[in-house]
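Progress report, Aim 2. The chain analyzed during this reporting quarter is listed below.
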Amino acid sequence: MQSASDRHEYPAHWEADVVLRDGGTARIRPITVDDAERLVSFYEQVSDESKYYRFFAPYPRLSAKDVHRFTHHDFVDRVGLAATVGGEFIATVRYDRIGADGMAASAPADEAEVAFLVQDAHQGRGVASALLEHIAAVARERDIRRFAAEVLPANTKMIKVFTDAGYTQQRSFEDGVVRLEFDLEPTERSLAVQRAREQRAESHSVRRLLAPGSVAVVGTGRAPGGVGRSVLGNLREAGFTGALYAVNRAFPEDLKDVDGIPALRSVRDIAGPVDLAVVAVPAEHVPEVVTECGEHGVQGLVVLSAGYAESGPDGRERQRALVRHARAYGMRIIGPNAFGVINTSPQVRLNASLAPEMPRPGRIGLFAQSGAIGIALLSRLHRRGGGVTGTTGVSTFVSSGNRADVSGNDVLQYWYDDPDTDVALMYLESIGNPRKFTRLARRTAAAKPLVVVQGSGSAPQGHAVRATRLPHATVSALLRQAGVIRVDTITELVDAGLLLARQPLPTGPRVAILGNSESLGLLTYDACLSEGLRPLPPLDLTTEASAEDFHAALARALADETCDAVVVTAIPAIGETSPSDAALAEALRSAAAAAPAKPVLVVHVELGGLAAALSAATSTAPRAGAGARTRGATPSQPGAAPEGAAAREAPEGAHLIPAYPAAERAVRALAEAVKYGQWRREAADPGKVPEYEDIDEKGAARLIDGLLSRGQGLTLGTEETCELLGHYGVHPRRATPAPTPDDAARAAGALGYPVALKATAPHLRHRADLGGVRLDLADEEQLRRAYTELTQLFGKPEEIRPVVQAMAPRGVDTVVRAVIDPAAGAVLSFGLAGAASQLLGDMAHRLVPVTDRDATSLIRSIRTAPLLFGWRGAAPVDTPALEELLLRVSRLVDDHPEVVAVTLEPVVVARHGVSVLGASVRLAPPPARDDLGPRTLPVV
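Predicted structure tokens for the chain:
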């Protein structure tokens, strides 16, 4: 697109879609010679005041010379970017490299002058801030380290764009002009600003989809039935508070309404604004609908239509085109192949989905990529009898289908500061951006519980997911580190959600158990032990217990300072004194209300009426004064109490007691709440990344640069590995090759006896169980005999590659690994060497950089951790030294992303100190980190 005289090809990788402050989208791309007419048209729509601020003088129109200058760039010293909506410019930014004299220059000059111009109609949408992020990233790529900008003092909006960006800057005033100079190296503050803007923008983009003022259903059938007509009926029955429109190009011209809703042949025919369009037409007609919606100013689309990526390669390309088409008009998409969205807020009452009934208002947010799973979640949360009984309300529900645009990350951004959502439940068949999801999950989990069912790791055909080399179990462990309550089934998802929405978090693992069945109490006790809780001996109230007995026993348990939570077990009782379901529910609820700081759960057997009574209130109010919406229900409403169930409304703001039909399910939910509560307390003090004076970061960087100059990727040799690790205070014990018995004897003589003789061939490495390692060889005779035995057992020396190594102090053999995954980032892993990690997969994982608290928890997270702390009378080993080793390895891979893999095996942890007996390091150009660059939407 550029002329032959230009120095660089068109940089297509600078193109990006971004979400603006108000939730709309824009496309950012380089300006080229083909943009002359667009530039002139854009400039004509800019006010005289904005032109004056840009050029410091009246400048009514661009000359031909100006147009040439602003459209011809070499993409190195002169770069221009434009933000576009609907293919037309709404803002521009450019930089020109300058020298110390302020005149045009080329590299190695590292400063550039930058200037913006934003169309007045789009000012205040955050366009300039987004352009600044992108032009700064471009400049850094072209070795420009500093921007300078001259701004008139009255142009306060542009001054604010620069000062709020978070870069290190200097400000001066001369000749009536404010001059700003700022470094382009990202700082903690600039990244924090960028991520705060990202959260606000993405949250608003989802809010526009979930709280529209008007909805058009495109593809509404003329006859009852069909997807479009069903959604229209669901919107009407839910009592949507905004304007509704039925759209179908096949409608007769004289048709005025469908079921009382205005009927039109095109979105263009709608007189007023349309915030949301629900698209239910065949895939081949969707592009025409998108164009109509974009030209009418529709803010977002829910595409129910199928026939996209789930149908194969042609459908995948159709899906990419759909997203590009919608984003070009500033619209975001839920779908395609979506089930729809729901918002139960009384101010909205949106049911733009295929769910035939509106869920009851509540405090739980639901996200599912699968429509079938979405239906199952809604059903389980609202049905009575069987499974988890009782009703629990929903704040918002999103079923994203193929998740081509709006994803779980976007919905998390919305839920983070949504005052109507206290618990987030997510069913994720795939995670498109694990690094970002983990970051958002950690922040969300610090404010409200996030419960996730994660798919098996095999993404559905319709999902575009970046490749990850991490095992499914590792990703799950990283999610838990981020505070995610990770469960395996939708039953466990709902079980945990009910408890977290209705009860306070437990402050510890101590559980009191009481009830009218000794056997059920013992089952609950055993379940607590299995889940790592600390149950107190069950209290048997006998089958003759009355409601007053339950009340008194629960009150005593809640008052007991040695108890953190209470599980009440109940079975049907026989006799005149047996309490009714309603009386028992009221007794438990009143006792719990007197001690609201501790959670209470009920395990019931064949007491459906008790579950209904316990869940009589129609909102989930996790804390007093939370402002939960409480709405009455009649027996004909979804989730209303079944006829004959003696249930009363609980007071607004009261804790609702969740009831479970099995002890195992109640205890599992409680155990997850205990772990989450502990994470919340620890997250308040995440620890720090220690500084070590002996780390030579610059020396390691020089070594890495020199090694990588040899090629794109390489596994280091022994000497290079030891040198690089030595820069970070990690010193592996040297192993001397021994191709002959005499070489082995000379090496042992130099090292000093006792020594170890090891076979290092790949099939024998770290396999002491095969006999390829001989330890504690006290003299040359034992060494030569061991050498002979190895060669007789496993082959010639050149086949087994024997080495001699000085003996390390006895201890526990462990393994430390670090790997940089292109999707998840750098991960540090730890486990015991041998069968524990290789056969049983007993490894623990943490994201890098690891803090001192992370290192402490990492070594205690494996199931075999007791071996490090004096199991069965053995002497405890030096875990502080092990933690320091983990922290040093973490620093290495965090400081140098070119270190893409490190393995230390075995690491012998003795009573005093650690010994690294084997080490390998792999270098490669680091994978791109999109989380450190400017804000962008995923590339489709």
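The two ends are 23 Å apart (CA to CA). The CA atoms of residues 46 and 119 lie 5 Å apart. These observations will guide the mutagenesis work planned for the next reporting period.
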